[in-house]
Amino acid sequence: MKRPTLLALVCCLLAPAASAQQPSELERETEHLKILWVEGTRPELVDTAASEGERFYASIAQLLGEAPEFKIAVVLQGPSEQPNGERKAPHVDPFGRILLYSYDPSGYSYFSALAHEMVHAFRFARRRTADWFFEEGLAEMVALRVDDSLAGFPWFDYPVDLVAGQWIERGEDIPLQVMRERHRETNMACRAQTYTLRSSFFDYLGRTYGDSVIVAMASREPAGALEDYEDLLGEEFDTLAVEWRQFLVESYRNIPDREVKADRFRTESPIQYIPVCGAEDY
Predict the structure, then answer these.
(1) Running DSSP on this structure, what letter comes out for residue 80?
(2) Which controlled-vocabulary keywords does the entry list (predicted)?
(3) What pLDDT shows up at residue 25?
(4) Which fold has domain 26-128?
(5) pTM to 2 decimal places
(6) pLDDT, tens digit (0-9, with 9 covering 90-100), for 191-243
(7) Cα Rg for the chain, rounded, in angstroms?
(8) Domain boundaries, the chain
(9) What number of other Cβ atoms are within 10 A of residue 122's Cβ?
């Protein structure tokens, strides 16, 4: 039998590797992003992921004053509801990829969390030393600045002051100190409250003291330590929490027909399907 030549062996070994490096039909690269998607995803959703992703990327980089050295992967994972009934939520995975899920047939619900998750992807290198109360608050504040849509969780097209304020007005708010100290236990379990209250708090801090001050806090290592609030904002965390609460209550009470709108938010928006924590839960 004729022996294979060395050249033939090399070609056989290289062929699969070269094939594996060919661009996938389910992948597109933009200037700063790598967009991936599951089979059956409509082309217009891929186009939106690319255009909105680049728009958010530019705005976030400008606000934070920094950007990753690598391209960020954005993965359109398909429906949130899995075959086993489990529901997946948007997040940044251990490889730094943004995993997004759709919540309606249109698929555009993919993008309601894109700006928020992109902030986490920007700060992926800090994940091991992160104060996650601060990181989530920063992501929420930045998302409110760069994305003018309040579609999707946690606002569902209702104003920030209305959504956050009604928790306080109804006696269902979770103290910020509890949310900060017990982030792991409360963040997702009580997400209807934690995401809106914390977002309102950091939005208030940014608007009162300047977004640049919060960004300066974000540059510290680790970012979000208790002393950072006093060092950069001139007030202790507990004092800031009281001032924010007073501001939010006043803002909420100045909303016309607030009770009707709050009832509609609680009974007609998807928030009705998310459990609300009582004091006994935390």
Answers:
(1) S
(2) Signal
(3) 58
(4) Zincin-like (3.30.2010)
(5) 0.89
(6) 999 999 999 999 999 999 999 999 999 999 989 999 999 999 999 999 999 99
(7) 22
(8) 26-128, 130-282
(9) 24
